[in-house]
Specification:
Structural class: alpha/beta
Number of strands: 15
Strand content: 15-25%
Oligomer: single chain
Largest sheet: 9 strands, mixed
Number of helices: 15
Strand order of the largest sheet: 7-8-6-5-4-3-2-1-9
Shape: globular
């Protein structure tokens, strides 16, 4: 059977954050109800794949999936299990924000089979949360985190953001220590990116300078390592045995299907996504061919490029053996000159049979990865 990951998109949130360019926005109770019904139809329309695939991970993202009730989440997972063979030990993650859950909802989520939570905290300082446009306080986060533990969740990620307007290196280091003391199993730490079309893009912001942001990134790995977190990807840190399996599968190019508005998929050598138009999605969700957009049949070169772009995000790097198994050609025959150039300049290193970015290379990874584009 083919190993498969599922991504389920919930495009709703209480209020859009000032930095967010995701496909999401506020909604009414009726709109959420209609969407869940259509989402379940979307999922069930793939029943023909049930015998060919085995689901090893599910990730419910958004938006803010925790705007849904426990009953709505139960409906979604009932549709999943009625359609697919889900492994007994599959990793099942739901993103949630403080201020959108209570004890009862979290208990209901647990009964759905959800076994991992990803909590969007971003900062331990209420002033910074206000700057970002978050709907919650740090105290509300602590309450939500406690409720999650009481509900039995033993695998929790906390999202943090650095290079926030006005933030100092000292403040960031304090955030890291404060969150690490809570002992979550996983921490994701991202720098703020100013995206076009967001409120932040239209403001003059007092952002940390480049050197400060560089040091914030280095401090993240150093401090979290002291607390027992291993950096396994550019922005992700985990206790032993708690690496996010879903995200690791994405970086390793495992096949996945995306359900919901705008959700992307990689399946059968193709990349495609669902429509971004809500009314079209609600009307045609039971017809995959009608809502499927931007279908790209990946050429061999495009698959090779993706293997490099995604794989080099992982701190363990690219395996020469896996490259040859996938493409029936030696890695060095395709990229030998580029790899040796970056090894000589100290941006990459060769460890046994793997190539990976060095600490110095991670900071200029976008520039380096552009060199791995191939001519068609």
């Amino acid at each position: 059977m083919r190993l498969l990951e599922l991504y389920i998109h919930i495009p709703f949130c209480k209020k859009k954050c000032k930095y967010c360019d995701f496909l999401s926005g506020p909604s009414t109770a009726d709109e959420r109800e209609s969407y869940v019904k259509s989402l379940c139809q979307d999922i069930r329309s793939y029943a023909h794949l049930a015998e060919a695939c085995r689901v090893i991970s599910i990730f419910v993202g958004g938006g803010t999936p925790s705007t849904l009730t426990a009953f709505q989440m139960q409906q979604i997972f009932s549709a999943v299990r009625a359609t697919f063979v889900v492994e007994e030990n599959a990793e099942i993650t739901v993103e949630m924000n403080p201020g959108t859950v209570d004890r009862e909802k979290l208990s209901g989520y647990k009964k759905c089979g959800i076994n991992r939570l990803s909590i969007g905290l971003q900062s331990t300082k209420n002033r910074e949360l206000q700057i970002l446009g978050r709907i919650h306080t740090y105290e509300e986060f602590l309450q939500s985190y406690q409720w999650a533990r009481e509900a039995g969740f033993q695998n929790i990620n906390i999202d943090l953001m650095f290079a926030i307007p006005g933030q100092t290196g000292e403040a960031w280091r304090a955030h890291l220590r404060q969150v690490a003391e809570l002992k979550p199993e996983h921490i994701s730490a991202y720098s703020l990116i100013i995206e076009e079309g967001t409120p932040f893009a239209e403001c003059e912001l007092d952002l940390p300078d480049e050197d400060t942001e560089y040091q914030m990134y280095e401090d993240t790995a150093e401090i979290l390592e002291r607390y027992g977190y291993r950096q396994y990807e550019i922005s992700n840190y985990a206790k032993q045995g708690y690496m996010c399996r879903h995200n690791a599968g994405y970086w390793q190019r495992l096949e996945y299907l995306g359900f919901g508005l705008g959700a992307s998929s990689l399946y059968g050598g193709m990349r495609f996504s669902n429509t971004h138009q809500m009314q079209e999605y609600l009307k045609e969700s039971r017809n995959p061919d009608q809502i499927r957009k931007d279908v790209t049949v990946l050429s061999r070169n495009e698959q090779i490029e993706e293997f490099m772009f995604l794989g080099l995000r992982m701190t363990e790097g690219i395996s020469e053996k896996k490259f040859e198994e996938n493409f029936n050609v030696r890695l060095m025959d395709i990229y030998g000159d580029i790899l040796q150039k970056y090894e000589e300049t100290g941006f990459m290193e060769h460890i046994e049979t793997k190539w990976r970015l060095t600490r110095k290379g991670i900071h200029v990874s976008n520039h380096i990865l552009a060199d791995f584009l191939l001519d068609e």
